[in-house]
């Protein structure tokens, strides 16, 4: 099964998409990676969905990526004596550590770490930012505030603190248990919530012990400020626009999205654009024009993947949502403007032999009638470097490791193929030719570019490039050994 687009689609699984039939239908409609949301569902449910994905993978013969999205710490107010209160603009309101049920004047905030970080003049946001409080005075167990934006506040609504870096670990006790569970289960990517600093990512990587790649969700102002350092220690990035739009002015999210995508592209690390992409399709079989434009914008920016959340997890039309995203992607990538936009945003890197090899592969492919760039990779790094170049020809990523193929399912343009281990470059070329022809990328009259590292099966040794005919007889004449 070959995709006729480069951008990848991530589909979240949930109550609307838990059966074998539905998960297979989502993959056939265009989903490349499935997201398991650890905020919802017990371990038994997660394990069942994981097993179904692997069965679909086996039945269809294509590597499928699985991303487990950790919940992260949840900061919430306590309860109210009346269940809810109406806060009026300009009124005084206190948050404190007292466990007494709240009223219109105060409520419990059972997070001393928030009080430890607050300063006069900072803001507290409640219920996804619908209520905004200005902190006038604060101490180790209280914050006296003025209501800036009023509304209904009720039991256990979430609290955001956008103006400070909180002394809160990105991994809660629940997250640590979930991380170990999904790593043992065999997921390919871990999405880390509540990232504020690179140390948060390093902690998750230490716990994962190489069993899954780490994808950092950029959803807090602190993460935006520390983005370069966070990107350096991450394997991938998710632009989590939901929380970004709560903690930052919504008008600032589009330029931040563009900067985050470009940074990840330059670092040759996969980047997902997520949240509310086709949200109306939770209830409607047809998206709005604005939503289609939003998906298209992310693709024009060069994102590796676009993601569906509730649309595929709990919506009425999960397959239609995936199919719509697939159709938008194919339409955008056929647009002549797409290539010029991608070219304009490409950042040239010439820092290593591997950088030079993949850049040369791209140049050769564009200057001649090359049908595909085939790259051999143990870890997926070479495929990511080729994808950074955003070539106009397909990328065939060959690896002997299923784990690598599954992780590369998130990489822009990568068509992943499992191939036997190679120890000679001629064998690698023959394997590349076989894959290109078998999957319909080339015929025996065509040529492909092959990149690899010699010696084989050694990380970081991309150092060879070959333009190869797709006729095995011609290869044998040139390379008799």
Question: What can you see in these coordinates?
Answer:
By secondary structure, the protein is of the alpha/beta class. It has 3 domains: 8-72 and 170-332, Phosphoenolpyruvate-binding domains (TIM Barrel, Alpha-Beta Barrel), CATH 3.20.20; 84-160, M1 Pyruvate Kinase, Domain 3; 353-478, Pyruvate kinase, C-terminal domain (Pyruvate Kinase, Chain: A, domain 1). Helix content is 38%, strand content 23%. The protein is built from 18 helices and 21 strands. It has helices at 20-29, 43-60, 112-117, 173-185, 198-208, 221-225, 227-233, 241-247, 253-266, 289-300, 310-313, 318-334, 336-345, 353-367, 381-388, 402-407, 425-438, 472-478, and strands at residues 8-13, 33-37, 65-69, 84-87, 92-96, 106-108, 123-126, 131-139, 142-149, 151-154, 159-160, 189-192, 213-218, 236-240, 271-274, 305-308, 370-376, 395-399, 414-418, 447-453, 462-469. Strands 1-2-3-12-13-14-15-16 form an 8-stranded parallel β-barrel, surrounded by 9 helices. Strand 2, helix 2 (43-60) and strand 3 form a beta-alpha-beta unit. Helix 2 runs parallel beside helix 4 (173-185), helix 5 (198-208) packs parallel to helix 7 and helix 10 (289-300) crosses helix 12. The radius of gyration is 24 Å and the shape is elongated. The two termini are 33 Å apart. The model has no long low-confidence stretch (mean pLDDT 94).
